[in-house]
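Module 6 notes. Inverse folding takes a fixed backbone as the condition and produces residue identities as the prediction. Think of it as a translation problem where the source language is geometry and the target language is the twenty amino acids. Below is one complete input and output pair. Work through it position by position during the lab.
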């Protein structure tokens, strides 16, 4: 057989692998993560890690390595009994414990040390929700790497409209992108408070490029396509701890390393991707194709609520509650975006209004109202109670005449009669509240007492309770233990029959803004509410800065904004949106789009816009 020069050379396609960071090394979900990692918390009654693994499997990943510090045994046990452990699973999933890691950088250095990744790979967190197939983006990444030998990463960014509910409230980022190549030139990030009116543009960004896009409407999805050089750079630079603040900024600002990063913008016109066959397009420039899709990261409870609403509202279709990943409870879809399991029991005169998920064996009593909420399996809501904008995990019991507003309740929580839970509260597993108490907004209550010891670096979601430096006091005692006496719990806060401890938010949020360059105590105090569901900008009374440190000229406006109710803030934003549309002479279609985005971000009905 002739195999001369006319034969075609066939290149073996490299298998695609993924590194999944199960730990976020922050404090934003405590006390919900006392008993399990954040990636196993339910989102629309499905563990968040399932959404991430489904995205990777859809993208053709053959091996996924989950790097986990906290509760690695529980995550391992979950994977072993899941669909990913079956012999016919299309993707192999491995859980690697990184017990001594304290930052994302430590986890990635452990990956590099293991030599498990030798080719280009997908890097993401274990709390990513996406309907994307990344294979085309990976193909374009590889093609662009052939044209640009310094190319080490392609970031996946999501375009969002101003005021959208998925925009990060606590952080403002400005991306400088070369539209001819989608290369990321610079990134400026700063905390929302104190407000900064200006941004600094590096002179070389302007002088070295004919055209530069300045984008303040992008959010990081925590998904990137990386070369092995990324892991090597983390190993070589032990001061790289945080992905965006340390690594991204370090690469973009370094003249010595000479590495480049590119951006794929979902919803943008210049998105990096491949053609319909998955191959990069030929030509002198880099690979392009317009691409749409949904990708978001559950960075805090505010994002948790926003992404949950997106799934219920079918904005991430086909990713929606009646088409859940894996073999979880099947739901029937009905008018008003209401999803019900077949075993749900609704008493006569109970009211299920709109955008609701009712888990298996959930029960809603007569005269009870459920709206914009997710109820887990076996939840029970008593008569004349109201659940609005909230997320109840499994086996929650709510008594009569109770009200829960924009809060998260963990498993086996009991809310007794005549209890009011104000917005932004996080109530951990096995807590009892009531009767006849009001829980103030943004309160955290846990079954275990907070221990005010240890370094701030040790206080994060990803600390195991049995570690020596743990800041959480173990309160899992028997009923006969004298430490569980009636005088041990915070009775004034949780009620005469309550079981639980109120956490000091100032201590709990120490070091929580892991991607922020700001660590000033006053700044952290103003920022902490913005990470929580139910929060608005009015919850952070802050001065404005003109970039020179001056923060006095608009104090009166800031004070006025801080005292606005959510409804007043909505009306104010509605007025400003209409005024801006008139001043800028926007077309009717563009003005309508702005108003629709405003309505969605504040979760308002059409009639309320008139």
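Target side of the pair, the amino acids:
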């Amino acid at each position: 057989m002739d195999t001369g020069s006319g034969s075609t050379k066939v290149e073996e396609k490299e298998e695609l692998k993924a590194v999944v960071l199960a730990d976020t090394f922050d404090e934003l979900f405590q006390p919900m993560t006392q008993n399990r990692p954040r990636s196993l918390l339910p989102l629309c009654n499905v563990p968040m890690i399932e959404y991430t693994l489904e995205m990777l499997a859809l993208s053709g990943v053959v091996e996924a390595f989950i790097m986990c510090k906290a509760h690695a045994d529980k995550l391992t046990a979950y994977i072993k009994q899941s669909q990913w452990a079956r012999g016919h699973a299309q993707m192999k999933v491995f859980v690697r414990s990184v017990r001594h890691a304290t930052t994302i950088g430590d986890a990635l250095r452990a990956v590099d040390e293991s030599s498990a990744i030798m080719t280009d790979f997908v890097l993401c967190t274990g709390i990513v929700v996406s309907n994307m197939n990344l294979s085309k983006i990976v193909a374009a990444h590889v093609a662009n790497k052939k044209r640009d030998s310094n190319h080490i990463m392609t970031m996946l960014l999501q375009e969002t409209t101003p005021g959208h509910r998925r925009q990060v409230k606590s952080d403002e980022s400005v991306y400088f992108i070369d539209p001819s190549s989608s290369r990321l030139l610079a990134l400026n990030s700063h905390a929302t408070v104190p407000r900064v009116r200006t941004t600094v543009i590096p002179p070389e960004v302007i002088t070295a490029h004919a055209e530069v896009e300045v984008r303040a409407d992008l959010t990081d999805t925590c998904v990137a396509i990386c070369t092995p050089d990324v892991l090597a750079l983390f190993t070589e630079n032990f001061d790289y701890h945080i992905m965006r603040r340390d690594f991204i900024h370090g690469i973009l600002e370094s003249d010595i390393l000479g590495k480049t990063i590119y951006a794929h913008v979902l919803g943008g016109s210049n998105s990096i991707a491949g053609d319909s066959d998955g191959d990069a397009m030929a030509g002198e420039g880099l690979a392009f194709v317009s691409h749409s899709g949904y990708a978001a990261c559950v960075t805090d409870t505010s994002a948790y609520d926003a992404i949950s609403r997106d799934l219920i509202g079918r904005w991430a279709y086909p990713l929606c509650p009646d088409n859940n990943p894996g073999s979880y409870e099947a739901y029937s879809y009905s008018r008003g975006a209401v999803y019900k399991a077949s075993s749900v029991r609704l008493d006569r005169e109970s009211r299920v209004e709109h955008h609701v998920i009712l888990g298996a064996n959930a029960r809603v009593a007569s005269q009870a109202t459920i709206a914009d909420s997710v109820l887990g399996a076996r939840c029970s809501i008593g008569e004349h109670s109201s659940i609005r904008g909230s997320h109840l995990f499994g086996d929650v019991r709510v008594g009569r005449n109770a009200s829960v507003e924009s809060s998260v309740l963990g498993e086996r929580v009991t809310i007794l009669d005549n209890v009011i839970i104000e917005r932004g509260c996080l109530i951990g597993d096995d807590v009892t509240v009531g009767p006849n108490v009001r829980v103030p907004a943004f309160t955290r209550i846990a079954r275990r007492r907070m221990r005010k010891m240890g370094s701030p670096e040790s206080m994060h979601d990803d600390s195991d309770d049995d570690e020596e430096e743990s800041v959480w006091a173990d309160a899992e005692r028997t009923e006969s233990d004298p430490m569980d006496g009636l005088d041990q719990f915070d009775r004034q806060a949780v009620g005469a029959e309550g079981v639980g401890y109120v956490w000091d938010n100032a201590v709990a949020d120490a070091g929580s803004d892991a991607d922020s360059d700001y660590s000033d105590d006053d700044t952290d105090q103003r920022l902490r509410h913005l990470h929580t569901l139910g929060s608005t900008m009015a919850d952070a009374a802050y001065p404005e800065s003109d970039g020179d440190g001056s923060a006095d000229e608009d104090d009166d406006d800031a004070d006025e904004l801080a005292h606005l109710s959510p409804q007043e803030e909505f009306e104010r934003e509605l007025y400003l949106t209409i005024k801006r549309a008139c001043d800028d002479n926007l077309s009717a279609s563009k003005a309508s789009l702005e108003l629709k985005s405003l309505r969605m971000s504040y979760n308002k009905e059409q009639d309320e816009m008139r």
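Reference fact for the lab report: The chain has a mean pLDDT of 80.
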